[in-house]
From TrEMBL:
Protein name (record): Flavoprotein
The organism's place on the tree of life at top rank: Bacteria
Length: 132
């Protein structure tokens, strides 16, 4: 599958809170760095899945919806792509006050695309989405 089609499936798994698909789409050797209020946190696959599970549960229990905006896309290498996404949640048709900016690196391994690295700026004002 080409990257663009796969990326649409990845974003759909995110916006529909499909944890099983996210588990498939994230590499077991995934590495991430998140900055929130100036504090740095590094984490891997297990912590990521736990975070997705909590986030998806919150969205579903709150009757919320993900608002996901793709800001840019870069080809890094023949089998590596980076996508910049901004994400927030809408509750009762209003955005929550914060959003996260994701720099996601995807790699094709054995014919399948997977998320291998993330750099995340968390807790940004959600109104920033409108600036892009």
């Amino acid at each position: 599958m080409d990257f663009q089609n796969w990326l649409e499936q990845y974003k759909t798994a995110w916006t529909t809170c499909d944890l099983d698909k996210m588990k498939e789409y994230i590499a077991k050797d995934y590495q991430a760095r998140e900055i929130r209020r100036g504090e740095l946190m590094d984490f891997g696959y297990e912590e990521s899945i736990n975070g997705w599970e909590q986030g998806f549960q919150f969205v579903q229990e709150s009757d919320g919806v993900w608002e996901l905006k793709q800001l840019n896309h870069y080809s890094l290498h023949p089998n590596q792509e980076m996508v910049v996404l901004m994400a927030t949640i809408r509750l009762n048709d209003k955005r929550v006050p914060t959003a996260n900016l994701f720099f996601e690196t995807f790699e094709e391994k054995e014919g399948a695309w997977q998320l291998v690295r993330s750099y995340i700026e968390a807790g940004l004002p959600s109104d920033n989405i409108d600036e892009y």
